[in-house]
Amino acid sequence: MSLQKKTLHRYRQFFPNETLREVSARTGIQITRVFRLFNGKTMKVGELEAFESAVSLKIAENPSFARLTEVLDEASAVLTNEELSKVADYISRKVLSRTYSRLYIRSQIENAIIA
Amino acid sequence: MKGLSSLERIVLDSINKNQLTYNEVLNQSGLHENVCFNILQAMVIRGILSTDGVRYRVSENLSPMIHEELNGLEARQAECLELIEAVVDQKAPRIFRFQKIAMDERDEKIFNAMLTNLEMFLVDAHKKAQTSVPMKSRKVVFWGVGEVQSLMKQIVQGGAV
């Protein structure tokens, strides 16, 4: 995955239901440009930074994130492979359960049908 | 991630050997409608469930690899932990006791006999009510015993000993 795709994917993970207008307001990028970027147009460095900065600000709202990355760094050095696998599995389960409640696939399908 | 999440397991158990519509799965599982729909779609994509567009059922001829993935020991352990954690985190009303009990040999035998009785009662209760009580209203019951020393050893070594 290219850096641009990764950045947009990461942005969508943090703001899954944002409209193009809301993305535009948050990043300061014009709405038509946001549409093009989500459709694969190549990003400029400034635009990439705008998306990264929006994600960083969101992360900063949650101080536990810094602790998590710190602990994971330490864990990767200390824990056995089996233990790391358990930790990864535990986090994956948390993420999956949350993802199911965050993705409004049905509403999106209904909206698409209505549109 | 190995196995199924507790949410996915509830959906799978709700369908079990039946063919259920979306509304029936919703009724059985008690999940929020979006969550239920997303899980059903995800499980259809993974090939665990199949649908004719109206009814969902567990796919026939699941490969042994998928069977192992769904019902393997590690997957079931992770699922247990997920549910136990949810019970521990639950706000009132909650029943949860955790104690380190000093027990002599005689009392340990009595305790084990009582556990056997409890298990028999639960098996009977489940048989009696499994068709009338929907999945969402079933109770999560668990128990377990371990000796402090061996558990501590296990924790220090980072795995089963």
What does this structure look like?
The complex is a heterodimer of chains A (115) and B (161). Chain A is mainly α and 115 residues long. Chain A folds into two domains: 3-60; 64-114. Chain A is built from seven helices and no strands. In chain A, helix 1 packs parallel to helix 4 and helix 2 packs across helix 3. The two termini of chain A are 31 Å apart. The model of chain A is unreliable at 104-115 (pLDDT under 50). In chain B, helix 2 (22-29) packs across helix 3 and helix 4 (64-71) packs parallel to helix 5 (73-89). With 161 residues, chain B is mainly alpha-helical. The longest helix of chain B is centred in the last third of the chain and has 25 residues, at 105-129. In chain B, strand 2 and strand 3 form a beta hairpin. Chain B is built from seven helices and three strands, in the order αβααββαααα. Chain B has two domains: 6-73, Arc Repressor Mutant, subunit A, CATH 1.10.10.10; 97-157, no CATH class. In chain B, 57% of the residues lie in helices and 6% in strands. In chain B, strands 1-3-2 form a three-stranded antiparallel sheet. Chain A binds chain B through residues 79-80, 82-83, 86, 89-90, 92-93, 96-97, 100-101, 103-107, and chain B through 1-2, 5-7, 32-35, 37-39, 41-42, 74, 78, 81-82, 158-159.
